[in-house]
Amino acid sequence: TAGNKIFHFGACRVSMSMTEIRAGFTAIKTNIQSRDPIRSLSILSHPHSLHKVKSPDRCCITHHLFDFYVDKVFKHCKTEDSFVNRKISSIANSFLSLRRKLRQCHEQNNCVCGEESTEKLKQILANYEGLNVTSAAMKSLGELDILLDWME
Amino acid sequence: SGELYCSLPNPRNVHFESINMKNVLHWSAPAGTGNGVLYKVKYLVYGVGKWIRKPECRNINTTWCDLSSETSDYEEQYYASVKAFLNGMCSDWVETTRFNPLTDTKIDPPMISVSSTDNSISIILTAPEKWKRSPEEESISLLQVYPGLQYNVSVLNKKTKKRWLFSISNNTLVVPWLEPGTAYCVSAQIHVTTPLLDSGFSKEHCIATLKDK
Amino acid sequence: EALLPAPQNISILSTNMKHFLTWNPVIIHGETVRYSVEFQGEYERDYANESWIPISECSLTTATLCNVTEDISAPVAYRLCVRAQVGATRSPWGALQGFFNRATTSLTPPLLKVVADGYHLLVELEDLGPACQFHVLYWQKGQDSKVQQKVMKEVSSVAHLDTMEAGAEYCVKAQTHVEAINRSSSFSPTQCVRAQGDTSMWLV
């Protein structure tokens, strides 16, 4: 069931459910990842893994990654497959709602960006801009489970 | 050897079969080839992209290769690939889909131990361990890998044929106030909510409450 | 100039997080009228040029009802529309009035069956789908201040609630709860059952 959980991102506490996003992603994971032929580059997890991020920086990185996916990724992921497009819509709309919750932390100044998170975000954007838009967006969408696994 | 002529049909259905993060690559022989086909295996860490050969799976005639050791870091994701050889011919490399050990593994049912008094049964559940390289290596329970792990426990009264279901988060369950001298059969399942993973139900363990004194 | 009128009286029937779009049939004598449904979430409005997404299960359907549950799967405001088609002739799009947010779904209390099996209090609950779980409240009759609550997620068979004192009467009621929208239904009628044995057993 859509289990709400309290996520702790440093000082920021947010009640969210990732269940529907994960279900939507699982339904299209193989399809999306098969459109990404590049094995030697990861947008999110190399060279520095998200798992190395320290707790105080978690909120900033999560908040900016939500922005990254909403502003840069989803819009370039339209496919010829109606089922895939519907699941992407479901994920994108869920991201909007989660981003709103994280924004509250941002406004309460519980979401400060330290040097490490700024560096990590720069690396992610550099990885993204190293590819053409569609390939970069499709690769980022295919790595959604990396973000979900790290968040959960 | 010189460049081989790669017109052999490809290995089929190349995929990981993973149980408790014991990650074994499996495939089917190329169509229309009898015995004598040999295989090579390589793998890579997604995002690093350097294919690495698996020496123990070079020129093998089996259609599986254990890559548990190479894929044991479940914070990474992986690809693996297989190539077939026969009579001087070879196939193309055939890849798996991207393998995420954390979400793509299957979990065994929990181990159960049951004891009884005259009017109660006590159940202790043990989650399976993550695969490890050798018995000496430190054991990691899947409870540590999946902190949200819960148990569904089924208790069947063999006399009345009534089955009760319990959902518990800790690993012990005492069912008091039962009928003396009655057989109860217990089985249990692991339920993980994030990511969504369920084991099957375990084999039934039956025990009788002691007869009334 | 469209010969075919747009479908009218478009509305959403939403109960326990299952959402259905319905509309009045367009009647064209001697013709089979088919319908197509599309949806638009907040993301499509604000970030994807107000694009609409077709629902394939309800493309060129003759039904006047479409299950949109799988697509209304985020806590945002959605717009929905439907048009009619006869052969190559299409009507204008008819739109649902305003927006639909799944938080407005109506929630019904679950069907509840309470069973006393010896000293054990058991319940059977109707499965209302993956989005719904249940808050089950139970108490010993006469001790209304000591109400206990259990949250039940999966309901596949007879679920064990608690053990009972011999001969005591216990009462149970349940409500449907949806975490995704943080809302609950009203409670089901209370049901009471009595445990085996007589109360004097406890005085010894």
Automatic annotation (TrEMBL), chain A:
<comment type="similarity">
    <text>Belongs to the IL-10 family.</text>
</comment>
<dbReference type="GO" id="GO:0005615">
    <property type="term" value="C:extracellular space"/>
</dbReference>
<keyword id="KW-1015">Disulfide bond</keyword>
<feature type="disulfide bond">
    <location>
        <begin position="12"/>
        <end position="105"/>
    </location>
</feature>
<protein>
    <recommendedName>
        <fullName>Interleukin family protein</fullName>
    </recommendedName>
</protein>
<feature type="disulfide bond">
    <location>
        <begin position="59"/>
        <end position="111"/>
    </location>
</feature>
<dbReference type="InterPro" id="IPR020443">
    <property type="entry name" value="IL-10/19/20/24/26"/>
</dbReference>
<feature type="disulfide bond">
    <location>
        <begin position="60"/>
        <end position="113"/>
    </location>
</feature>
<keyword id="KW-0964">Secreted</keyword>
<keyword id="KW-0202">Cytokine</keyword>
<dbReference type="InterPro" id="IPR020444">
    <property type="entry name" value="IL-24"/>
</dbReference>
<comment type="function">
    <text>Immune regulatory cytokine.</text>
</comment>
<dbReference type="InterPro" id="IPR009079">
    <property type="entry name" value="4_helix_cytokine-like_core"/>
</dbReference>
<dbReference type="Pfam" id="PF00726">
    <property type="entry name" value="IL10"/>
</dbReference>
<keyword id="KW-0732">Signal</keyword>
<dbReference type="GO" id="GO:0005125">
    <property type="term" value="F:cytokine activity"/>
</dbReference>
